[in-house]
Amino acid sequence: MSERKVLEDSIETFSFMSNGHGVKISEVEVTFDPETFKMHEDAKTREEIEGRWKAICSKNSRIYNKSKFRLDNLHYKDSSVKLDVGLTDYKDLQGTNLTESSANLVDHSKEDGRRFKKLSQAIGVGGWVITSDKKSFFIENATWKGEQGGKLDRPGGHPEPEDACTDCGQSDETKLSSDQVLKELFLSEQKEIRDEINIPLEIQGEPELLGAVFNLDMGGRIGLEFRIDVDLTSDQVLQHYKKGDQKEADESTGLVFFDLDQVHSFDQSILSRLTPHATGSLRFLRDIVKNSK
Known about the structure:
Elements: E1 5-8, E2 11-15, E3 28-32, H1 43-59, E4 67-77, E5 80-89, H2 90-95, E6 124-130, E7 135-141, E8 152-153, E9 156-157, H3 161-168, H4 178-197, E10 208-215, E11 221-229, H5 234-242, E12 252-259, H6 268-271, H7 276-291
Parallel strand pairs: 3-5, 6-11
Antiparallel strand pairs: 1-2, 2-10, 4-5, 6-9, 7-8, 7-12, 10-11
């Protein structure tokens, strides 16, 4: 790509791609330090977070707090990526990034990830599944999902400290190694594709990390974007999805398939329904298609 960082409207994208491909896990380094890379807060911010959380919980019985990984900063040099990662939780995400006043917490004197030191910056993941007949798809979010209900999105979610602990037999998430956190960052997108679309891990290709998307309307809310190839046709993917026995079947209502050649010519009926992170991530998918010709 000619430019690593691009700003379009309120969506900032940072690409890790070269010649239409992202970086593999062997080209990424994580520094995990919960103390150094935690969110900065004062007593006023904490009071506002707790008040907002109490109000949200009173209106939604399905909501609950859970630890998340936090992105403090990212670094890209010579086709390698370094990620500085700490811990946060869903409560702090709701009380910082997802508030109408999130922009007030951004430090505009900084240019990199440290702009967002006063925000949760819980790491989200999303990805483009590419089928053997050169198609991909959007998922249609269930309306109950609140923030992005009814929108079109790529499969995704959050890497989970709890899952990383389970996978490595660790009981204390603050004691996870940097390599264990890195593994969860990549594996989490594959697990989301399994749990949302019903595509088993063993028939998914190795993930490529394409880049990062920052939604500046939400205080720089971060999504790491992946590409995963599957040895299935689009019809076979749909058959897997329609079985309906996947763990997160209730989170979506359908799949919208498209030929990869369409990514430069979506009409407004599609573009207007995309989540902000899906909109930003289209930049990476278009680069994949451009370099595949």
